[in-house]
Amino acid sequence: MQHIVDLHIHSHLSRATSKSCNIEGLYYWGKLKGIHIIGTGDFTHPTWFAELRDKLEPAEPGLFKVKKSIANEIDKTLPPSVHDSLIRFVPTSEIATIYKKGDKVRKLHQVLVVPSFTEVSAINSRLERIGNLKADGRPILGLDSKELLRILLECAPTGQYIPAHIWTPWFGLFGSKSGFDSIEEAYEELSPHIHAIETGLSSDPAMNWRVKGLDGVTIISNSDAHSPQKLGREATVIAAELNYDDIIGAITTNDNRLRGTIEFFPEEGKYHADGHRACNLRCTPEQTAAHGGICPTCAKPLVVGVLNRVGALASRPDGYVSKAAKNVEYIIPLAEILAELRGVASTSSKAVQTDYHDILARLGDEFSILRTVPTEVIREAGQPLLAMAIKRMRSGNVVREAGYDGVFGTIKVFKNSQERSQTINQMSLL
Ligand SMILES: [Zn+2]
Ligand SMILES: [Zn+2]
Question: What is the pLDDT of residues 104-148, one digit of tens each?
C-alpha cells in the first residue's frame, strides 16, 4: 500500500508555531490533506512528549494512532469524503546543533526518527544533560552533530538521523553560511549511518542529483510544518507494509518501496535564489558573481541561496538524472491555487477557506485532488477553472518567481490578472 509520509513537523511547543499544532489539529489536517504517516515532531519537549503519551496509543510495530475516543470526536467534524483515510504517527524530533569545527561555527538542523517511546525517553535523558529541552520544541544544543548521531545510535539502534533542509544557508548540512561541503566532513566515520537527506522547500531532487556526494543517500521530502494547515507541503511516497521497519527500510535502502517525493516547485522556497531582502533584491547566481557577492544597493554581502550553493558543490551539469532517481511530483498547495483563482492575496481569506472545504467534501483529500483525481472529474464537479489550474500545475506549466533571503517565492498558474480574467470570461461563455 502507498503511504504519504511527512516526518518533519513541529508542535505548538516550538517557537513561531500555531496553537493548533496539537494532536487533534495534526489528525484533523492530516486527514484533510491525505497524509498517512506523520512525524510527531518535538519529542524532546517534556510537555509535548507527555501529550503524545496521553493521546496516542501503539498501533502497528513502531507506529502510533490517536486514541479512539479523541479520533471519533474529530471524525465528526470532517467531511465523509476523507473519513476512511488512515493516520499513523511516528516519534520524530528536529534538533539544532551549534558548535565549532575546523575553525568555523556550524549550525545544523537534523531530524531524529525512532520507533518507540522507550527510545524517546533514553534519548531525552541523554540530551537534557547537554541543553535545555524545555526552552523550545526544537532545542538548540551546543553539541557536535556527529556526537548527536552517536547518541541516537546508542539509544535507538533502528533510529534514523536525517539532515534537515540540507541546502538552507543557515542550519543546512550543506548551507552556504554554517554548513559543510560533504557528509563525511561533518560525520566522519559515522557517515555510513546517514541514509537519507531532506531536500527542503528550496531544492528539488534534480538539483540534488548533481552532487556526487549524495549518490549513496536517499532523497526524501517533508513539510517542516509550523501549522497543521502546512502539513505535507512536501512529502515522501512509500509503498510498504504498515510498520516502522518496512517504512524506514524503504528510506535506508532506497529500493522500489521508495516511490518518490512530492515537492514544492523549488523556486517557491525562501532561499532558492540569491539576494538581499532589506533591499528587495533578487539575483541569479550569475548576477551575484557579477556583483562580486555584494549587494549593489547597501554593500552588505548578498545571501547566497540554494541554487547557487548547489552549483558550487555540483560536479554534474544541470539536467543530469541520477540512476537512483525516483518519481518527482510538483504541487502548489490547494489553498494557494484557490486564492489565485479568486484573485485574493491570502489563503486564509473566508472565501478561499469555504472553497477549500467545499471542494474537499466533494472530491476527497487534498493530495488526491492535486495528484490523482482526473481533471475531467474536477471540471464535472463544477470547478472548470480549478481543473485547468491543476492541469497546468501537473504539467509544470506555471509562472515562477523565485524566493530569496527568507522571502517566499510565488508560483502562479496565470501570467497576470489579465490572463486570469480573460480565462474566467471565456469559461463563463462556455
Ligand atoms: Zn530546521
Ligand atoms: Zn542590500
Answer: 999 999 999 999 999 999 999 999 999 999 999 999 999 999 999
Which residues, 6 or more positions from 192, have their beta carbon under 8 angstroms from its beta carbon? Answer: none
Give the span between the Cα atoms of 244 and 232, in whole angstroms. 19
Nearest ligand, CA 274: 2
Determine what percent of the chain is predicted with pLDDT higher than 70: 100
Query: Closest-lying ligand to the alpha carbon of 298?
Result: 2
142 exposed, middle or buried (CB, 10 Å; 0-12, 13-18, 19+)?
Answer: exposed
Please, how many CA atoms are within 13 Å of residue 372, restricted to the half-sphere of its CB? 7
How close are the terminal C-alpha atoms of the chain, in Å? 41
The 3 state secondary structure assigned to 103-115 is CEEEEEEEEEECC
* Nearest ligand atom owner, CA of 282: 2
The whole-angstrom distance between residue 429's C-alpha and the CA centroid of its chain comes to: 40
Q: What cell was used for 27?
A: 489528525
pLDDT single digits (tens) 73-93: 999 999 999 988 899 999 999
CA of 290 to the centre of ligand 2 (A): 15
In CATH, what number does 2-267 get?
Answer: 3.20.20.140
| Distance between Cα 164 and ligand 1 center (Å) | 6
Ligand nearest to the CA of 281: 2
Q: Does residue 17 have a pLDDT over 90?
A: no
For residue 277, the CA-to-ligand 2 centroid distance in Å is 7
Q: Kindly give the distance from the C-alpha atom of residue 302 to the centroid of ligand 2, in angstroms, as a whole number.
A: 7
Ligand closest in space to the Cα of 299 = 2
Please tell me what DSSP assigns to residue 273: B
Q: Dump the DSSP string for 125-155.
A: HHHTTTS-SSS-SS-EE-S-HHHHHHHHHHH
| Residue-range domain boundaries for the chain | 2-267, 333-429
Cell triple for residue 314? Answer: 555540483
CA 188 – ligand 1 centroid, Å: 22
Closest ligand relative to 295 C-alpha? 2
- CA–centroid distance, 291 to ligand 1, in Å, is 30
Q: How far is the CA of 405 from the centre of ligand 2 (A)?
A: 11
Flag whether pLDDT at 368 surpasses 90.
Answer: yes
Contacts of 30 (CB under 8 A, 6+ apart): 36, 38, 85, 87, 228, 231
The alpha carbon of 272 and the centre of ligand 2 are apart by a number of angstroms equal to 17
Most distant CA pair in the chain, distance: 69
* CB of 331 closer than 8 Å to CB of 389: no
Model confidence at 430, pLDDT cuts 50, 70, 90, reads low
Q: How far is the CA of 420 from the centre of ligand 2 (A)?
A: 34
